[in-house]
Amino acid sequence: MKSMLKEAAILFAITLVSGCLLGLVYQVTKEPIAQAQESAKEEAYKEVFPDAAAFARVGWTTGTVPPSMESAEYEYKTTIDEVMAAQGADGSVLGYVITVTNHEGYGGDIQFSVGIQNDGTINGISILSISETAGLGMKADPVLKEQFPGRNVEKFSYTKTGAASDDQIDAISGATITTNAVVDGINAALNHFQAIQQDPSIAVVVENPEEGGSVNE
């Protein structure tokens, strides 16, 4: 009995120390990880909207989530993570950078930012995180992202037989699930952008990230 109590006490002590060490590591690494993630996003903003002088966060004047965000979740299995206004040197809005996460990738979530000019033209996309099959789905970055810049359409689809119009994207051979996830994510971003353009009153610039502050959605 004493032996069992001793072993239980030792196991408890080890578990307690391990837990404390893990907690300490988390606290030490939390801020650097968050900073690295913010830096990655800022680089993505600049990649998809190089003409912008600054980026300001967009919130919602309605006090509720816009319907376009709900339709993104339902129709495209995509979360609208963040919307940034791409601003010119004079503070004017040149367009938007919309960061989305599609939940239908072959290897899990795919997160990327989409730069869209005010007239609906896509500047480009920048993939922030992806965990697809090596050699196939991972081609989303070099293969898919190069097909979107300069296109101005309401909605994209993909094809396996060669794109015949601006609204068609050539699928990655052997990775149609990844292709569909990226196309759906971009369609969700376009749908949200179009909602803002149709009713600008739903969106308002609420923060310049360089100045700090919070977002009220």
- Continuous helix count: 3
Task: Give unreliable regions as ranges.
Answer: 208-217
Indicate the mean pLDDT.
Answer: 80
**What would you call the structural class?**
alpha+beta
**Strand order of the biggest β-sheet:** 5-4-3-2-1-8
Fraction of residues in H or I helices: 25-40%
SSE topology sketch:
Elements: H1 2-48, E1 54-60, H2 67-76, E2 78-87, E3 93-105, E4 108-117, E5 122-129, E6 157-159, E7 168-170, H3 176-198, E8 203-207
Parallel strand pairs: 6-7
Antiparallel strand pairs: 1-2, 1-8, 2-3, 3-4, 4-5
Helix pairs in contact: 2-3
Overview of the molecule:
By secondary structure, this protein is of the alpha+beta class. It has one domain (48-211). Helices cover 37% and strands 27% of the residues. The chain is built from 3 helices and 8 strands; from the N terminus they run H-E-H-E-E-E-E-E-E-H-E. It has helices spanning 2-48, 67-76, 176-198; strands at residues 54-60, 78-87, 93-105, 108-117, 122-129, 157-159, 168-170, 203-207. The strands form 2 sheets. Strands 5-4-3-2-1-8 form a 6-stranded antiparallel β-sheet, sandwiched between helices. The chain has a two-stranded parallel sheet with strand order 6-7. Strand 4 and strand 5 (122-129) form a beta hairpin. The longest helix has 47 residues, at 2-48. It is globular and about 75 Å long.
